[in-house]
Amino acid sequence: MFVIGSHLSSSKGYTAMLETALSIGANTFQFFTRNPRGGAAKALDEADVALFLERASEENFKTILAHAPYTLNLCSAKEDVREFARNTMKDDLLRLEMTPYQMYNFHPGSHVGQGAEKGIELIATALNEVLFEDMTTTVLLETMAGKGSEIGRNFEELRAIIDRVELSDKMGVCLDTCHVSDGGYDIVGDLDGVLDDFDRIIGLDRLKALHLNDSKNPIGAHKDRHEKIGEGFLGTETFVNIINHPVLKDLPMFLETPNELDGYAREIALLKSNRR
Predict the structure, then answer these.
(1) Dihedral sign of CA atoms 166, 167, 173, 174 in order
(2) 256 catalytic, yes or no?
(3) Active-site residue flag, 70
(4) Which of 185, 211, 214, 264 is catalytic?
């Protein structure tokens, strides 16, 4: 089953997101758990959640992806920033138990001059505080482009975090196509080689989702500028290869391209037409 969707606004609740996804030809969606630039979260509407779960069953929506706000930085040099991130993630993970057995994606953070090793240590320490034994959500580290002092610029850094997490069975990875290309991985010319590296360093069993984004910049640029599918340096053929690759084709895939709903609908239709 080809599981494909896009990032959607959560302002009107879960059921509205599902109906919007259906309207653009999607069978999954990604959403921010709260304002991406702030910490406030709307109270969950239990009736909306119940209706969503019913509609999801009817429409065969098995997977959705929650995205943490960009303001989370578990490895900041400032304790108050780290505390905000921990508290926000704790709250998010508790709220997500209302829609069990889904995924929660976050950017690992920026060490802001402390060094990658210290950043990795702080991220793992925070995850050991916020993860809990009976949670059903899988927490995903996102592959990053490597701009500034970002952690997650390569597979080794992600593996180093996972190795330090006590409940590592709750952890996975979301591979962002723009980010890994900007980070220096040649998914255009050597997708198999990149996946071999991922398997050797992290393990393909940890790869749980894909962000499908073209890039405004060439490989190794460390910029993180998303482009519409086929209009950047990755090109349409790269995405055709990805959505049909035997290792990747059954993973849920999420568009974060610079689009409105009609643009997402066109991209979903394009990808479906190239699915073999």
Answers:
(1) negative
(2) yes
(3) yes
(4) 211
222 assigned to active site? no
Q: Which of 93, 117, 97, 115 is nearest to 105 (CA)?
A: 93
pTM, 2 dp:
0.97
Whether 245 is catalytic: no
Active site residue 224: yes
Reference 20, options 5, 35, 1; nearest CA is 5
Residues forming a β-bridge with 212: 255
- Other beta carbons within 10 Å of 122: 23
Q: Is 211 a catalytic residue?
A: yes
Q: Is residue 134 annotated as a catalytic residue, yes or no?
A: no
Name the catalytic one among 82, 159, 179, 206. 179
Q: Among 37-41, 83-87, 126-130, whose mean pLDDT is lowest?
A: 37-41
| Sign of the alpha-carbon torsion through 188, 189, 191, 195 | negative
For residue 99, what pLDDT band results from cuts at 50, 70 and 90?
Answer: very high
Catalytic (active site) residue 185: no
Instruction: Give percent helix, percent strand, percent coil of the chain, each to the nearest 5.
Output: 40, 15, 45
